Amino acid sequence: VQLQASGGGLVQPGGSLSLSCQVSGFTINRNWMYWVRQVPGRGFEGVSAISPTGDEIYYIDSVKGRFTIARDNAKNMLFLQMNNLKSDDTAIYFCADPPAGLWGQGTQVTVSS
Asked: What is the number of other CB atoms lying within 10 angstroms of the CB of residue 81?
């Protein structure tokens, strides 16, 4: 099983990044999927979650209105559109299904001027 996140990078405050996660080795269409970030000095933080059909979505308060989670079950992929990025968003971002014990390799997002 692999969950490979990509799309991170260095961006200035106010900028945007689009993260993708390609999942292989299992089919995600029956799983809630999550984006989780590891923040320096703050540990792991759940950012967003999406139900198997995409009809239920949750965000932590600090990213509401700025981040959008999406999924494509046909392609076995998870996405996170991040707009109006702030320095506090700097972290390693992981796509994951923590209840199932599935974590991918993260992608570094750095927001800095």
From this structure: 14
